[in-house]
Amino acid sequence: MQVRLLLVPCVESTPEGSSRAAELAQASDALIVAGIVDQLANVGVSAGRIERPLLPPEQVSGDPITNLGRYNGLISDAADAELRPLLVGGTCSHLIGMLAGIQKTYGPAARIGLVWLDAHGDFNTPEISPSGMLGGMPVAVSAGLCHARWRELGGMASPIPTDRILFIDVRNLDPDEARLISTTDATIAKFGPRGQVDEIASAVQRLAEHVDHLYVHIDSDILDISLQPNHPTAEPDGQDVAAVLASIRPAFATGKVRAFSVVSINPNGPEGQISMRSGTELILGGARIWAELSA
Q: Which CB contacts under 8 angstroms, 24+ apart, belong to 245-248?
C-alpha cells in the first residue's frame, strides 16, 4: 500500500519555543532520523511522497487563529484523500487540515466520520475552556462551534455534524466540556476494564453505516502515562499499544478510512526514548492494519 506521508514539524502553526509542549514539533524530524520510511516499508507501506508543510514567514501574523487556519490550509493541500495521507508529528491542532483534505477530495457535502482517539475531548470552546488553550478546541472547531476563521482558512467548506464524531476513551474531560458533548449527537465509546474493544467496535460500526469516509486520529496520550511519560498532557489509567491498535482495527475493516494520523509525540530527554518507541509502534501498527485491510 502506498501513502502520502505528512511530517508536521509544528505544534500549532510554527516550530517555536523550548517548552515540553513545543518539543512535540521535533517528532517528525526524530522519526525520519530513526528511519520511519524504511520501517513503514517493512510493514508493507510505501511513502510515495513526503510532505513537510511549513508556513512562510511572511504569512505568519500576530493572530494565532489566522496562523492556525493558514497552516491547516497547507496541510489540506497536501492531504489528498485518494493518496491515503498519513500524518505523523504535529498535534491535534492539525485536525482541520486533514478533514479539509478529505472534503477537497470528495466535495463539501461528503459524509465524513471522525474517529477521535485521545485522553481528552478537545471539544472546548473559548467560553468554557478553563485554560483557553487552542489545542483543547480542534474538535469543537471542526463541528462549527467556535473559531470559524480557523476552519475556513484551513479549507473546511462545511463543519462536521456531531453525529459523525466518535470519541474513543476521552478519560479526562473538563466538566463544561463533558456537558457540551452531552448536548450534541456525538458518541463516546470506552475500553473495557481489561482493554476490551467491544463497545468501541459497535460504535465504529454504527458510525460507518451513515458515513462514506472515515478519518482516524490518535493522540499518543491515549496511552498510559508510563508509555508517554513526557507528553505535556499525559494521563494515568490509559491503555497499552496493543489495546489501542485493536480499537482502530474495526474502523479500517470498514474500508472507509481515507486518512490516518498519530500526533503529539515528544522525542526529547531520557523519557523521549519511551515516548518515541510507543508512538512509533502506534504509527507502524496502524499503518500495517490499514495495509492488511486494504489488500
A: 245/282, 245/285, 245/286, 245/289, 246/195, 246/197, 247/117, 247/168, 247/191, 247/197, 247/200, 247/201, 248/115, 248/117, 248/216, 248/218, 248/286, 248/289
Q: Where are the domains of the chain?
A: 2-294
Write the CA distances from 90 to 32, 34, 228, integer angstroms.
Answer: 14, 17, 15
Which tens digits make up the pLDDT trace of 170-216? Answer: 999 999 999 999 999 999 999 999 999 999 999 999 999 999 999 99
Closest CA to 231 of 240, 241, 222: 222
Give residue-wise pLDDT tens across range 29-83.
999 999 999 999 999 999 999 999 999 999 999 999 999 999 999 999 999 999 9
Q: Is the pTM of this model over 0.85?
A: yes
- What is residue 269's three-state secondary structure? coil
CATH code reported for the domain at 2-294: 3.40.800.10
User: Residue 128 corresponds to which cell in the numbers above?
Assistant: 468554557
